[in-house]
Amino acid sequence: MNTRSYRALTVAALVAIATGFTFAMSVPPERTQREFAKIMFVHVPSAWLAFVAFAVTMIGGAIWLIKKTPIWDRVAASSAEVGVFYTALALLTGLIWGYPVWGTFWDWSDARMMSTAIMFFVYVGYLALRRSIPDPETRARRSAILGIVAFVQVPLVYFSVSLFRTLHQGPTVVRPDAPIDPEFLRALMINLGAFTVVYVAFMAWRTRLARLEDELEETEAIADFELAGSGITAPELEEVPGDV
User: What residue ranges of the chain have pLDDT lower than 70?
Assistant: First the structure.
């Protein structure tokens, strides 16, 4: 992709977010939660895109283990970063939404809250692992393994509301008899699409930055090698005079 393509993708993301916001604000207040219900137009897409991002991290890591191609390690790492951002956004909007609806910002006994928080910290650990390993191949291999293993949390987070009866309600959108107003559903789907465009834009820019970081790391490694070798010089042998 050239610079113009990156800029066009950025503009598309901004337009998508503006469109999603417009549709979200045009929805009438919900009967019981009033305006607070509109937080779902950020909260739900953020959670879904976090799942998507971590799935891409798992897939990228698996392909790297097979092909050892650097691009897939960059994709996996970049998607993990974006996934952590979306997870943090889902947690934050959940706190804001929870207080007026449930009367509390956080419930330690809620399965969805706790499993999402654990998932967030595991992937923060994934990013920390990458920063702690200087060797590119070792870093990519260990990160790939962790990215694959860590993905088991995604279905656990999703099905937590079905496995445990806590504050969070069960699935609504995916049910055939989804008890959600059509206007809310339309605005939710539009915002889900908008957040997806933003994810693609984030990924494009972040993988590009990752490539530049890899090139800089390689250049510095070569420079360090040459600097270390410059201290080694060939011995100078003095001329021994012949016998007289």
Answer: 167-179, 224-244
Query: For the chain, what is the largest distance between any 2 Cα atoms, rounded to a whole number of angstroms?
Result: 115
The encoded tokens of residue 85 equal 């951002």
- Residue 109 is classified by DSSP as T
* Environment class of 22 (CB within 10 Å of its CB; exposed 0-12, middle 13-18, buried 19+): exposed
What φ, ψ does residue 228 adopt, rounded to 5°? -65, -35
Count CB atoms within 10 A of the CB of residue 175: 10
**What's the rounded Cα separation, in Å, for the pair 86 and 47?**
7
**Which of these, 70, 52, 48, 46, lies nearest to 144 by C-alpha position?**
70
Rounded (5°) CA angle 132-59-92? 65
Interatomic CA distance for residues 138 and 144, integer angstroms: 10
The residue type at 30: E
* 98/80 Cα distance (integer angstroms): 26
Instruction: Give which of 123, 119, 117, 57 is closest to 92, Cα–Cα.
Output: 117
CA distance 58 to 80: 9
113 vs 162: CA distance, rounded Å: 14
Element (H, E) at 129: helix 111-132
List the structure tokens of 192. 């889900």
**CA–CA separation, 111 vs 160, rounded Å?**
6
Which tokens sit at 117?
A: 């928080």
pLDDT computed for residue 67 by the predictor: 94
Name the pTM for this structure. 0.85
From CA 148, how far away is CA 58, in angstroms rounded?
5
Residue 68 Ramachandran class (φ > 0 left, ψ -120 to 50 alpha, else beta): left
